[in-house]
């Protein structure tokens, strides 16, 4: 048995788990505050939430900076850690994949269970991250080989050198083309991946971008604005340029579809997206902007249009789930257990 902890924030961690779990070398139990997703094969333990109080203003939530989220006296925290402990005792898993939680890494390790920890880009040199990295037997970075120093800037080599850089994990199959050729449509097509909205991709900002690019067709994908699509892959496949915040999963999906991008980093903990954008500016098929612009949309789109999106093959080659599985298999094998 292998456990897979899925952080409940957003949908990206779940999409990644759904992509990686089928490749793992044993039955996989999902551990998450999220409800069991359709299509999950294997058991699922839905955990209580640990953030349901009206306010945590007066609570000790970090144990004096040692951890990220352990609100003192929180019944949900007590229940969720008890549920994970009970599951470990009941199943004696060969390994637990954690995406992402320092506290779950440490909890599993305190039970003597090997941990494979995934992390995101960013400035993760704080004490909780260092504790989480140290508690994991293996560390996985879902980014291209050689980019760990760029995507985890300042991290001590004793942790950075342990990362298996497996490449980006996309839920969509990668396209086979190695060189991007702009479409022959008379009007180029821009797709905006706004996700849940906010972070500058407001209705007003989107309207301004469309007004500045009358020679472009636009598709806006936003759950907040009511423009989401049941099949995002089909929309991305018809794009000439994608505009997005560089979250790990959105970026992986654009790379898998081999479409050039306009990237606008949004504020995130540990500077995750700004660190990612800085790396992308170094020769990848992306035009990187500091913020959602008020002018200059036409120039940004046309600059991106002529980039060679075949370079995305080095970011996302479709084999990342198998590489993660190989790392986990090294822990779950009888030889490793001995």
TrEMBL record:
Keyword hit for Ribonucleoprotein: no
Residue ranges annotated for the Glycosyl transferase family 28 C-terminal domain, each copy included: 233-290
GO molecular function: hexosyltransferase activity
InterPro entries hit by this protein: Glyco_trans_28_C
Keyword Chaperone: no
Name this polypeptide is given: Glycosyltransferase family 28 C-terminal domain-containing protein
Recorded superkingdom: Bacteria
Keywords per UniProt: Transferase
């Amino acid at each position: 048995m292998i456990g897979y902890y899925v952080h409940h924030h957003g949908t990206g961690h779940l999409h990644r788990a759904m992509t990686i779990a089928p490749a793992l070398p044993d039955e996989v139990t999902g551990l998450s505050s999220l409800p069991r997703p359709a299509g999950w094969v294997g058991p699922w333990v839905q955990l209580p939430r640990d953030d349901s109080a009206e306010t945590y203003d007066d609570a000790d939530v970090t144990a004096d900076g040692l951890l990220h989220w352990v609100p003192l006296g929180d019944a949900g925290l007590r229940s969720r850690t008890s549920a994970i402990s009970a599951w470990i005792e009941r199943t004696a898993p060969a390994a637990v994949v954690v995406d992402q939680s320092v506290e779950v890494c440490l909890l599993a390790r305190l039970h003597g269970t090997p941990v494979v920890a995934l992390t995101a880009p960013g400035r993760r040199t704080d004490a909780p991250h260092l504790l989480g990295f140290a508690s994991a037997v293996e560390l996985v970075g879902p980014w291209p080989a050689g980019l760990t120093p760029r995507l985890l800037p300042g991290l001590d080599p004793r942790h950075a050198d342990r990362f298996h850089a497996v490449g980006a994990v996309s839920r969509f199959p990668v396209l086979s083309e190695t060189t991007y050729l702009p479409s022959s449509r008379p009007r180029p097509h821009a797709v905006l991946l706004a996700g849940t909205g906010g972070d500058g991709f407001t209705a007003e900002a989107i309207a301004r971008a469309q007004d500045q690019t009358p020679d472009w067709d636009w598709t806006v994908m936003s759950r907040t604005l009511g423009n989401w699509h049941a099949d995002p892959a089909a929309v991305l496949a018809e794009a000439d340029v994608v505009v997005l915040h560089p979250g790990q999963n959105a970026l992986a999906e654009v790379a898998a579809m081999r479409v050039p991008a306009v990237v606008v980093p949004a504020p995130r903990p540990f500077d995750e997206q700004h660190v990612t954008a800085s790396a992308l500016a170094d020769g990848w098929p992306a035009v990187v902007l500091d913020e959602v612009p008020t002018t200059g949309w036409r120039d940004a789109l046309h600059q991106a249009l002529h980039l060679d999106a075949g370079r995305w093959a080095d970011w996302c080659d479709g084999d990342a789930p198998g590489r993660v599985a190989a790392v986990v298999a090294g822990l779950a094998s009888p030889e490793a257990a001995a």
